[in-house]
Amino acid sequence: xxxxxxxxxxxxxxxxxxxxxxxxxxxxxxxxxxxxxxxxxxxxxxxxxxxxxxxxxxxxxxxxxxxxxxxxxxxxxxxxxxxxxxxxxxxxxxxxxxxxxxxxxxxxxxxxxxxxxxxxxxxxxxxxxxxxxxxxxxxxxxxxxxxxxxxxxxxxxxxxxxxxxxxxxxxxxxxxxxxxxxxxxxxxxxxxxxxxxxxxxxxxxxxxxxxxxxxxxxxxxxxxxxxxxxxxxxxxxxxxxxxxxxxxxxxxxxxxxxxxxxxxxxxxxxxxxxxxxxxxxxxxxxx
Length: 287
What we know:
By secondary structure, this protein is mainly beta. The chain is built from two helices and 16 strands.
């Protein structure tokens, strides 16, 4: 009798095999013949739209001329190759390491250092619609300028864009018209005042295509010694996996011109020969 039950158990294991794993089945489907070197533009939609934002977490260093800050840089885009049907799989989202996927090459153009430093390379949220959200924690360093009216106030600019793609291949847009400070930890010396953001495009004498970028302006004020402040000791709150886009409505300074009054998109008037950057970089695709 014992041998009979052993035989039945062996038959059950043989028939059932390894357990079904829904996430593995989805990955087998969406990553089959997936080429991460290929930009996810299609014939119907050749331009990949990338939403970009800045979450300010903490000011690490600031001497009035240079700002070093800990940030999250939420990025969202769509890759139709990574979509799956809920009719077959009862799972609407999963995560993957970013090095398995095509990701936008968004960089901080005006950093005085060679590149921004990532604390680590986080996984990417992938939704069944093919939309992706990525929240890389990044330590950024950027230059600041003092106010001509108030010597305790500084303006720190951050200019982000694709390093290699022009606007017809990759169009960067704002997810919000200000810097997110929901998880910001107060600094003892510098008070966060406000921020603005706008989108613009750069034209180069060498090339007919426009190169879009987004600009953020963070205003800080040096605290008076008599002022009190609260230092948050809590860890940042958990982040939402969905990014809401808000159109920018801010005016920009005199060196920009409105391309389309309904699109809130601006073009810089100055054109330069070659692909030279504002900071002197001459790498192909640099801005």
